[in-house]
UniProtKB/TrEMBL annotation:
The keyword Lyase applies. The keyword Electron transport does not apply. It comes from the Bacteria. GO terms for molecular function: 4-hydroxy-tetrahydrodipicolinate synthase activity. It comes from Bradyrhizobium guangzhouense. This is Dihydrodipicolinate synthase family protein. Gene3D superfamilies: Aldolase class I (3.20.20.70). Keywords: Lyase. Pfam families: DHDPS. InterPro entries: Aldolase_TIM, DapA-like.
């Protein structure tokens, strides 16, 4: 499947930028798929105004592949979305593993109806740059690709600007999620895409949870041989946006309106720090992100969108002190939550 085959409305949605929450996995106490709450989550993200969903990604738990849930979870999200709304939604499937596995997952996602694959390179840590490019090219032959620069703390591989130039030169790459949580490495990706002459084709999506709003509103000037190219992040694909999503959509729209202007309101710039403070608790920064998935689960559990914090790996849970941090940011930044929106609609989503 080539990107030219994507529905034009959805292709435009991805290219112009949108909110893509990384979809969590709702489980029962027996660590089985909780289909009722999984459907409710999908409906929540749609009604909150997201432009699509990323399913089978880190927030969905990579371990779904080990317990036979990869296809069922992707199918459930696609079916729920199709039955809940008629507006265009960009459906992005997480792809992982060595080449044979990633290609098979790309075919599965494509056959279900997903428009693109977010390709994790965590399995390629020992591979050379040439081998990783060959891997990406093979997967791109099956489905349009969203690149993924994942931070090393949760399994990512450090990659050069030259790598991103070569990656962006692959014809079927349509976007890159930039999530190294590192400004130097973020700039490496931007410079690489610019060097490939691909800024018009490859949409830049932030995954930098430590600077979400700044990434979404500020211009980035790239210099090459005395020539300046100005570019912007178009959207975000974030685990952080799996919670308080209705509020995140409003923040995203404010950031879009602030772009291309001579000045940005100071209050909007300052809001970046408050969002980052919330993320520090949800993502368990104090413990090197150990509780990042469970932290998001806790926020959703409090709202009734999940029944518990259970992860497929029993060792994945909240860290000591994390619940107190979530209490703190929930109290201090209550205006950034969407608790009232969820409370007003929860019964409908659970029906």
């Amino acid at each position: 499947m080539h990107h030219s085959q994507i529905n034009s409305d959805i292709r435009r949605l991805i290219a112009e930028g949108t909110v893509l929450p990384a979809h969590p996995l709702a489980l029962t106490a027996e660590r089985q798929l909780d289909r009722r709450h999984q459907r409710a989550l999908t409906r929540y993200y749609i009604d909150a105004g997201s432009g699509g969903l990323a399913v089978g990604v880190h927030t969905t738990q990579f371990a779904i592949r080990d317990v036979g849930l990869y296809r069922p979870v992707l199918e459930l999200a696609a079916e729920t979305a199709a039955n809940w709304t008629k507006r265009p939604l960009a459906m992005v499937a997480g792809l992982a593993g060595p080449t044979r596995q990633a290609v098979a997952e790309a075919r599965t996602a494509r056959d279900i109806g997903y428009h693109a694959g977010l390709l994790s390179l965590a399995a390629m840590k020992s591979a050379s740059e040439d081998e990783i490019i060959a891997h990406c090219t093979a997967v791109a032959a099956e489905i349009p690709l969203v690149g993924f620069y994942l931070q090393p703390a949760v399994g990512g591989v450090v990659l050069s600007s030259r790598f991103w130039q070569r990656f962006a030169s692959i014809d079927n790459v349509i976007a890159i999620k930039i999530a190294p949580f590192n400004r130097y490495r973020t700039l490496d990706v931007l410079r690489g895409v610019a060097a490939a002459g691909a800024l018009d084709r490859v949409a830049l999506y932030t995954g930098n949870d430590d600077h979400i709003l700044l990434d979404l509103m500020l211009p980035f000037d790239l210099r090459d041989r005395g020539v300046t190219t100005r570019t912007y992040f178009k959207g975000g694909l974030l685990g952080h946006w799996s919670v308080w999503t209705a509020s995140a959509v409003k923040q995203f729209e404010r950031c879009k309106q602030a772009r291309h202007k001579d000045s940005v309101p100071a209050d909007l710039l300052a809001l970046d720090a408050r969002v980052t403070d919330c993320n520090s608790a949800f993502f368990d920064v104090a413990n090197n992100f150990h509780g990042c998935i469970a932290g998001c689960h806790e926020v959703l559990r409090r709202q009734g969108l999940m029944r518990g914090l259970w992860c497929l790996d029993p060792n994945e849970s909240l860290s000591p002190g994390q619940i107190e941090e979530i209490d703190r940011v929930t109290r201090e930044h209550s205006d950034l939550s969407d608790d009232a929106f969820v409370a007003a609609n929860l019964s409908k989503w659970l029906a």
